[in-house]
Design a protein that fits this description.
Blueprint (H helix, E strand, L loop, with lengths): L2 H7 L5 H28 L4 H4 L23 H14 L1 H21 L2 H12 L4 E5 L15 E5 L2 E11 L5 E9 L9 E6 L7 E5 L11 E11 L3 E2 L5 H37 L1 E2 L2 E2 L4 H29 L6 H26 L10 H13 L4 H13 L5
Parallel strand pairs: 1-4
Antiparallel strand pairs: 2-3, 3-7, 4-5, 5-8, 6-7, 9-10
This protein binds flavin-adenine dinucleotide (FAD).
The site of flavin-adenine dinucleotide has 20 residues, from strand 1, strand 3, helix 10 and helix 11.
Length: about 400
């Protein structure tokens, strides 16, 4: 790393937050990073790396201590997501899905029994979480979901299919959204949490991917799959605000992960630019290469500031920050994609060889532009706030 860039990164952090960054970075660089290429080559989900997280309290930064978590402020959680994503996006995704989408929803909307049942296991790394939201005919228009939950004695029968589901094969908790009445659109949406190992009528299939294969994305089918009344999170038909709340925090952690990925592109491209020579000098001395590095640093800092500001707002008690979450997610995921592209330009043809990591960042960053709301959706939301069509 580079002392000048480090100073910008840490300008607003407390001593304790700096220490968390240092600790997570050292852990991530020594315990995770050296193994990623092997998992990538073998297209294998990094279970063994995820198992290292609980020892440092990294599985439960948003889970209170009474449930075994290492509860911290939102900014510290963002720094953790950033540092983990700097070395590996799958490991960072495990933490972010567990804390932002699942534990956060259970803490806010769950019963005491649901909290006791799931939160200690999540914090201990014994329960991996998976969010089943997207469907084959659309992920953006979630209010129009086709998966149904029909009320029967003692519970509900789920029918439908979810696609692109991260961590599903490894999960001990599914956060599912389904409609109890499709004619009511978003007012029929209901949120459920359940242990997939107890769900008869649920099957998990492979979701074929061209890249990002070690993510192990899955298709989840529900066919007359019974889940008990106790699996409802909050109230039936009141799942849409729960989803909105989960996605607000989810967008924060995805944005923080994008900052880590943007930073990684700089960390890789800058030393390469000083090593690689052309026309008798390091390519880093060519102004066109310098322009790319300067843009990469500026983009990363802009997105980091948006993410940290959002964290500060959440730490100040504002739970829903839709405008700021959309803006942070939009700009930081676009920055991560553009940094991967600029970083690849610095590496030239070597960027697409197996020898260098930089090319891998591109697909990961682009995928982060889709997850938890596409760039188009966030652009639309930001514009609607500006136009007064949408209000706080
Ligand atoms: C690697 C990866 C991991 C994922 N993990 C999960 C997961 O764990 N759980 C889960 O549920 N989902 C997951 N997803 C799915 C992701 O959330 C969806 O891909 C995303 O929500 C978009 O849905 P879609 O792909 O169906 O696109 P669509 O909704 O079909 O949209 C297609 C295009 O139309 C545009 N569009 C749609 N509506 C509008 C509009 N109103 N205005 C302007 N443009 C619009 C979109 O921006 C997009 O460009 C994952 C995706 C990826 C790539």
């Amino acid at each position: 790393m580079n002392a000048a860039l480090d100073r910008m990164m840490d300008f607003d952090l407390s001593e304790e937050q700096r220490l968390v960054r240092k600790t997570v970075r050292e852990f991530a660089e020594s315990e995770i990073l050296p193994h990623i290429e092997m998992y990538e080559r073998e297209e294998r989900y990094p279970t063994e790396l995820v198992e290292k997280l609980p020892a440092l309290g990294l599985m439960g930064p948003m889970i209170p201590e009474e449930y075994g978590g290492s509860f911290s402020d939102v900014l510290t959680y963002g720094v953790i997501c950033e540092e983990l994503a700097r070395v590996d996006w799958v490991v960072a995704s495990v933490v972010s899905v567990a804390n932002s989408l699942c534990a956060g929803s259970i803490l806010k909307f769950g019963t005491d029994e649901q909290k006791q049942r799931y939160l200690p296991g999540i914090a201990a790394g014994e329960i991996i979480c998976s969010a089943c939201l997207t469907e084959p005919r659309g992920g953006t228009d979630l209010g129009n979901m086709e998966t149904t939950a029909k009320k029967v004695e003692g519970g509900y029968l789920l029918n439908g299919t979810k696609v692109f589901i991260s961590h599903a094969e490894h999960a001990g908790l599914f956060f599912i959204v389904a409609s109890i009445d499709r004619s009511k659109k978003h007012k029929g949406v209901t949120a459920f949490i359940a242990d997939p190992r107890e769900m008869k009528g649920m099957t998990i299939g492979k979701f074929p991917m061209r890249t990002l294969k070690r993510d192990n994305l899955a298709e989840v089918h529900f066919e007359d799959c019974f889940i008990p009344d106790e699996a409802v999170l909050g109230d039936a038909g009141r799942g849409f605000p729960i989803l909105g709340n989960a996605l607000d925090m989810g967008r924060f952690s995805v944005a923080a992960r994008c900052v880590g990925q943007s930073q990684r592109a700089i960390d890789l491209a800058a030393p390469y630019a000083m090593e690689r020579e052309a026309f008798g000098q390091p390519i880093g001395e060519f102004q066109l290469v310098q322009n790319k590095l300067a843009d990469m640093v500026a983009r990363t800092e802009q997105s980091r500031l948006l993410v940290y500001r959002l964290a500060r707002m959440k730490d100040a008690g504002l739970e829903r920050c839709s405008l700021e979450s959309s803006l942070a997610k939009l700009k930081s995921s676009q920055a991560a994609t553009q940094n991967a592209l600029d970083g690849m330009a610095v590496f030239g043809g070597y960027s697409v060889t197996a020898e260098y990591e930089i090319g891998r960042l591109l697909m990961e960053a682009k995928a982060l532009e889709f997850g938890e709301g596409t760039s188009d959706l966030h652009q639309k939301m930001v514009a609607e706030f500006a136009l007064g069509i949408r209000s706080l």
